[in-house]
Design goal:
heterodimer, A: Translation Initiation Factor IF3, four-stranded mixed sheet, 4 strands, globular, B: about 375 residues, alpha/beta, FAD/NAD(P)-binding domain
């Protein structure tokens, strides 16, 4: 059964939300999802850019009170 | 109160000493006991490996006897942990002993996993172990010219190594009179040159001056040593004559073996450093899964907070401080100039132009 893990990268500057996503992608199975919490508005564009380039799937991007919730599914 | 510290690196050593100073009277009255379990009788100063790789330090300068670094009240055993039985407040060690504790802090660090990218270990150089740093220096000292490619895995220890190794290597070849025979191509996993945006912008200017080309969104997939190319997960490939790797890291195998965290990273509360599911177990330094820099300064600042909290647990039964995410990183901008980045959970970094005085401050700190 597919799992969903949350990465709380709010307020972290280095390595930052995208780097954390890339690191954690290595630790999950194909079909599992990662939800990245980010206070960096740049994540809303740089995460999809990488996800699309490498061939994973964007599930959703929402913003609540200055926190972006970006959900990605591992596709390969 | 029995306090057990696992790991004799920067985090474990600073924690043990800070705690011993805070609990002087409790230790004297046998109301507290601090035991440190280390994997080696030698303590290595890992930031010095960059200078070993550049031929500017010798390996023996990196080491101190672990015992000589500790306050006399800290009980040291060179006996690595093999089993963590956190539910029983026990660990079992390589020698077969069982240690019981009331409070435990795990600071076992991280390790490069060069072998996880096919072809990387045998076709690249890096600065992350003594053996690797010596191979690095031998390789660069014999290099006659060509294309140097920097390739970066994630997560990696010390986020400043990618720019530092690039700038230092550039100056090294320039000093050898090879400036017109060597070109540099810098790759990075995300869409800019460094995870810290201000550092990335500063690097771009420095790279432009030096003619260093770049490729972002480049995550290593495999290295073909016969064709001398490194391929990325994103589908591109880069030709190299000398491949300089910043390999991805994992936590120690014992952490994963004991199911304390995937990848060897232990999930902790980012403010209190408590291990998820436990009130008397903590982790610090590279070992944690907190999404901040894996760096000596992180371990140092976490150790200071944790020492205060463990001491207050002994004295008043409650922790008193939160870790604010503080990180301080020097950044070598070449052989004789440096800057730094300091930040925490609430304040982004604002690095200043590099100066010689910051370089020498870093050199002094290394001693």
């Amino acid at each position: 059964m597919a799992e969903k893990k949350v990465i709380d990268a709010r307020g972290t500057f280095c390595p930052g939300p995208l780097m954390e996503l890339i690191s954690n992608m290595k630790l999950i199975n194909v079909g599992d999802e990662l939800e990245v919490l980010s206070t960096d508005k740049g994540s809303a564009s740089d995460v999809p850019e990488w996800v699309n380039k490498v061939g994973h799937q964007m599930v959703s991007t929402t913003e609540e009170n200055g926190v972006w919730h970006i959900v990605v599914r591992k596709a390969k | 109160m029995r306090i057990l510290i696992v790991g004799g690196g920067m985090g474990g050593t600073i924690l043990a000493n800070n705690l011993a100073r805070r609990l002087k009277s409790e230790l004297k009255a046998n109301k507290a006991r601090i035991t440190l379990l280390a994997a080696s009788e030698k303590h290595m100063y890992q930031p010095g490996l960059l200078y070993v790789a550049l031929g500017r330090m010798s390996p023996d300068e990196l080491y101190r006897d672990q015992a000589s670094l500790l306050e006399p009240e800290v009980e040291l055993h060179v006996d690595p942990v093999e089993e963590f039985l956190l539910a029983k407040n026990q660990v079992k060690t390589k020698s077969g002993k069982t240690y019981d504790y009331d409070l435990i802090a795990i600071a076992t660090g991280s390790r490069p996993v060069t072998e996880e990218i096919p072809g990387l270990a045998e076709n690249s150089i890096n600065v992350y172990t003594e053996e690797a740093a010596l191979k690095f220096f031998k390789t660069i000292s014999e290099f006659k010219g060509g294309r140097v490619v920097i390739a970066v895995g994630v997560p990696h220890k010390c986020p400043m190594i990618p720019p530092e190794v690039t700038f230092c290597l550039y100056d090294y070849f320039k000093d050898r009179g090879l400036a017109d025979k060597v070109s540099f191509h810098y790759t990075y996993p995300i869409g800019r040159l460094h995870s810290l945006e201000p550092v990335s912008k500063w690097m771009q200017g420095e790279f432009n001056q030096r003619g260093i080309t770049t490729e972002t969104l480049f995550n290593m997939k495999e290295v073909d040593g016969a064709k001398k190319v490194v391929r990325s997960e994103e589908g591109s490939e880069v030709k190299y004559d000398l491949l300089v790797a910043v390999p991805a890291h994992k936590g120690m195998a014992v952490v994963e073996k004991n199911n304390l965290g995937k990848g060897g990273w232990i999930p902790v509360d980012r403010l209190r450093l408590t291990i998820e599911g436990y009130q008397n177990a903590f982790a610090l330094g590279d070992t944690t899964n907190i999404p901040i820099s894996k760096a000596g300064s992180t371990a140092h600042f976490e150790a200071e907070v944790l020492a205060e909290n463990l001491a207050s647990l002994v004295k008043i039964g409650a922790p008193v401080r939160d870790y604010d995410g503080k990180v301080f990183c020097f950044i070598e901008a070449g052989k004789d100039r440096a800057t730094y980045a300091m930040f925490n959970y609430n304040n982004p970094p604002d690095p200043k132009p590099p100066t010689k005085s910051i370089h020498w401050f870093k050199m002094a700190y290394n001693q």
